[in-house]
Amino acid sequence: MKQLLLATVLIAVPVAAFTGFQLYQNQASAAAGLGDLSMFSSIVRDVQKIAGTGDLPGAKTRIKDFEIAWDQAEAGLRPMDPARWDTIDEAADAALSALRTKTPDPAAVGETLAALQTALTDQKAVTK
């Protein structure tokens, strides 16, 4: 009987510890989301400032920096939180489209840039 109890303890304790660690690790990675997006947010702030002065061609040029950096980071970011990545990517596509139209509408540009900034900074911003 003592051997059965000892065997049960020797099996149950490591399994419980491993399971607890896995749960903790999964919660920690879920809380991290996409991590630090401040670099992207900073670029969008720059684009907003440039667009705010009425220099939409300059804003169009600067948002290209965001697009390049975002595309380069996709392989590392997307697996971390696919739904949030998609939300930000859709907001970025809208901002890019607003700036790349033949005659950009300053109001639409401002709205889409604000939406992109919100998507970047709001940890809970997920449309799906």
Describe the 3D structure.
This protein has 128 residues and is an all-alpha fold. It has 2 domains: 1-32; 34-121. Helix content is 80%, strand content 0%. It is built from 5 helices and no strands. The protein has helices at residues 2-32, 38-52, 56-77, 82-100, 106-121. Helix 2 packs antiparallel against helix 3, helix 2 (38-52) packs antiparallel against helix 5 (106-121) and helix 4 (82-100) runs antiparallel to helix 5 (106-121). The chain starts with a helix and ends in a 7-residue tail after the last helix.
Q: Can I get a quick summary?
A:
This protein has 128 residues and is an all-alpha fold.
Number of β-strand runs:
0
Overall geometry comes to rod-shaped
How helix-rich are the residues, as a percent range? Answer: over 70%
The average pLDDT value, as a whole number, equals 84
Most strands sheet: none
Gyration radius, in Å? 23 Å
Order of helices and strands: HHHHH
Structural key phrases:
single chain; 128 residues; mainly alpha; rod-shaped
SSE blueprint and pairings:
Layout: H1 2-32, H2 38-52, H3 56-77, H4 82-100, H5 106-121
Helix pairs in contact: 2-3, 2-5, 3-4, 4-5
